[in-house]
Structures are given as structure tokens and as C-alpha cells.
Amino acid sequence: MVQSQSQTPGIVVMGGSGRMGRMLIDVVQASPDCRLVGVTERPGHDWAGRDLGSCLGGADIGVPVTDDPIEVVANAQAVIDFTTPAATLAMSELTAQARAVHVIGTTGLSDEDIAALGPAARHATIVRAGNMSLGVNLLTQVVKQVAAALDADYDIEVIEGHHRHKVDAPSGTALMLGEAAAEGRGVSLADVADRGRDGITGARERGAIGFHAIRGGDIIGEHDVLFAAEGERLTLRHVASDRSVFARGALKAALWGQDKGPGAFDMLDVLGLK
């Protein structure tokens, strides 16, 4: 049975003028399984108060861009959010009130920020992941399995590369991969993470999980997990060559969450890997 437009979930995209925002708009508009019902922007932005169509240089399409998201969220079934920690926390209060699915791809969230999402998850479905790519989330499972199979004689290093405009490091994806490796080894990442080496640092500590961040040009996302031992090295690698992989994963999460109750989920839940 084909769904009518009124039956398909209405989706709000946060931060529509940014690179990810525009990609999300394109992916949502191209899908027959949902409707774009609103776009948010920060207060004072040139797009605020206008129709999305005119913002993009065309005719009005009936999709409002607003810096006051209360009304558009109240009429939505899902919000896709790749913005900032402060904006994400503020939006979580609105999605909880609207009982809308909140898909969070925001990076740079602290442990305190993540804990602050807890109250919203008691009322609405939250799907949060450091990376919405389906391939990356499958990679986390492989990393966990390899880390469990190889002992601490194999040094683990996570190397990630992103464009010059990225403001946080290590990336959310790198931390996901580090967490997977630590879980495979049965340790806490907080206890074994080594996030920076400079100067006379001494020998590498056995069992440490190292992180290295590369920033330059227009790199969309490259992640390597290196397992290095005496006489051999194993590298697990994911390369994103098109930002749409994150948008498609986020849309999949928004649609998956439509029949779920309140709770905190991640992409492994969406992929049925838990």
C-alpha cells in the first residue's frame, strides 16, 4: 500500500544552511517515505523567517525556515540534528514535548551533555551516534571483535582525517571506534586513551589506545584502526567520499524510530546488530 503525503512522517532539519543541513534537505526531499515540514536556523540568520525554496534561489515550496522551532517541531514526527551541543540539548526538550524522534549526529558532546539527554529519552525516541554511516557502524562491530581476539601485544591506534573546518578532535567516529576497541578488550576507554603525544613522551604504554587527528582541505571523513604487533600490522579502514552517506543513515534512523517507544538508541539498534 502506497502511503499518502499526509501519512508519511514529517521531518524537521536543523541548521539547514550548512553543508550537512543542505545534504539532509536533499535526501529528505528525495525520499518517498517522508516529508520535509520545516528547517531551523540560528537567530539572526539570513534564512530565518523565509520559505526554504526562496532561500535556495527558487520559488516558495511551503517549507518554513525558522529561528523559533517550537511550532514546526510540534507538527513533526522526527527532527534530524547535526548542529552544536548547546542547540542539541535545547532541541531535546522540544522533541520530548512533541514525542518526536530526535536523530542526533552532533559531535563534541561531553559526558555531561549526553547525560543531560536522559530526561528527554524518557518521553521520546532518541537515536544518537558519532557517525550515521551504515558502513562505519558495521566497522565498529568488526573492531570490537578484532580487539577481543588480539591481546595487548597488539597496539591499537585510531587515526582520523577531516576537513579544515571541523572544530572538535578526536572526531565522534574516532571515539566510537575507540570505545568499540576498549569494549572488545574489556576495559574502559577513559582509562587507556592516549590522545596526544608531543616531545619526550617515553615509550608507548602497553594496552593504550591512541588517537591521532588530521585536519586539511575538504576531507569528508577517513578513519583507520591500526592493530600493530611485532612482525605484523592489521588496518581496518573506512573512507567517506560523499557526505550523503551520513544523511541517508540519519534518515534511516528517523524512519526506524517511528514505531519505537521512548528511549536512547544508536545506529547499531537501527541496523539490528544488538
TrEMBL record:
**Is Repressor there in the keyword field?**
no
Among InterPro entries, the record links this protein to: DapB_C, DapB_N, DapB_N_CS, DHDPR_bac, NAD(P)-bd_dom_sf
Q: Where does the record place the catalytic residues?
A: 162, 166
Q: What is an example of a GO molecular function annotated in this UniProt entry?
A: oxidoreductase activity, acting on CH or CH2 groups, NAD or NADP as acceptor
Instruction: List the keywords (alphabetical).
Output: Amino-acid biosynthesis, Cytoplasm, Diaminopimelate biosynthesis, Lysine biosynthesis, NAD, NADP, Oxidoreductase
Give the first-level EC class, as a single word.
Answer: oxidoreductase
Enumerate the residues binding NAD(+): 15-20, 41, 105-107, 129-132
**Could you tell me which Gene3D superfamilies the record lists for this protein?**
Dihydrodipicolinate Reductase, domain 2, NAD(P)-binding Rossmann-like Domain
The Dihydrodipicolinate reductase C-terminal domain covers which part of the protein? 135-271
Give the highest taxon in the source lineage: Bacteria
Q: Which residues bind NADP(+)?
A: 42
Q: Name one GO biological process term.
A: diaminopimelate biosynthetic process
Pathway per the UniProt entry: Amino-acid biosynthesis; L-lysine biosynthesis via DAP pathway; (S)-tetrahydrodipicolinate from L-aspartate: step 4/4
Catalyzed reaction equations: (S)-2,3,4,5-tetrahydrodipicolinate + NADP(+) + H2O = (2S,4S)-4-hydroxy-2,3,4,5-tetrahydrodipicolinate + NADPH + H(+); (S)-2,3,4,5-tetrahydrodipicolinate + NAD(+) + H2O = (2S,4S)-4-hydroxy-2,3,4,5-tetrahydrodipicolinate + NADH + H(+)
Protein function: Catalyzes the conversion of 4-hydroxy-tetrahydrodipicolinate (HTPA) to tetrahydrodipicolinate.
Q: What protein am I looking at? A: 4-hydroxy-tetrahydrodipicolinate reductase
Q: Which organism is it from?
A: Thalassobacter stenotrophicus
